[in-house]
Amino acid sequence: EVQLVESGGGLVQPGGSLRLSCAVSGFTFSNYWMTWVRQAPGKGLEWVANIKQDGSETYYVDSMKGRFTISRDNTKNSLYLQMNSLRAEDTAVYYCARLGGARGPPGYWGQGTLVTVSP
Amino acid sequence: DIVMTQTPLSSPVTLGQPASISCRSSQSLVHSDGNIYLSWLQQRPGQPPRLLIYKNSNRLSGVPDRFSGSGAGTDFTLKISRVEAEDVGVYYCMQATQFPHSFGQGTKLEIK
Would you say A79 and A55 are in contact if contact means Cβ atoms under 8 Å apart? Predict the structure, then answer.
């Protein structure tokens, strides 16, 4: 069974940093592109970043470029999102998902982890 | 960047009746490889999103056949032939033809 479990969310002050993790099981992690998608409370979905199977290609939404870094460790079956210089508007549930290729689709999702940026 | 616009934003539907959601992109979603990387996802209350349709019209295995996707160029539609109670939730279109990928605002499907 394919499983994705996010962790690392929590309360952080503006300007702070947080590292999210996504532990996967039930499939060969190194064979798949992966993505992070976020959802602010009561709002819609927002694509954050994608990463290629070997980590050699990454793509970001402009508003997060330079502040967020997507990475992966195929030996640990884990996906990461390093978030720096956090702002109140980064408050959201962050989902990791498995993609069917560089251009999706996002077929399997985790349950999400909540990040709250507040003084 | 490609902007995805969904209409309506809210859709009250009677059980057993059809429903239709429109998604319009600010640029053509036809990739140079000929594919249309347009997906439809469903998000039930309190749940993560669930993929229904990919590459415009391909239904994911296990998705009821009352769901169908169609469209071309910049105009796309998700149709539910007969709405059931379990279909309540928010529906999103998503384009992956061009980076950055982007979602529509979401359409809330409710039962009248």
Answer: no
> How buried is residue A25: exposed, middle or buried, by Cβ count under 10 Å (0-12/13-18/19+)?
exposed
**Contact list, A62 vs chain B (CB under 8 Å):** 1, 100
To the nearest whole Å, the CA of B33 is away from the closest chain A CA by 12
pLDDT one-digit tens code per residue, A47-104: 999 999 999 999 999 989 899 999 999 999 999 999 999 999 999 999 999 998 888 7
Q: Per the structure block, which two tokens stand in for A82?
A: 């390093």
- Whether residue A105 and residue B102 make contact (CB cut-off 8 A), yes or no, is no
Does B103 reach chain A within 8 Å, measured CB to CB? Answer: yes
Instruction: Give the number of beta-carbon pairs within 8 Å between A and B.
Output: 67
Tell me what percent of the residues of chain B surpass a pLDDT of 70. Answer: 100
Which residues does chain B have within 8 Å of residue A106's beta carbon, measured at their own beta carbons? 39, 41, 49, 51, 94
Which of A44, A104, A111 lies nearest to residue B48, judging by beta carbons? A111
Q: Are B23 and B77 spatial neighbours (Cβ–Cβ below 8 Å)?
A: yes
C-alpha closest to that of A47 among B29, B5, B103: B103
Residue A81 CB coordination number (10 Å):
25
Q: Which two tokens stand for residue B79?
A: 């149709």
What separation in angstroms does the CA of A102 have from each of A17, A117, B68? Answer: 28, 30, 24
Q: Residue type for B93, please?
A: C
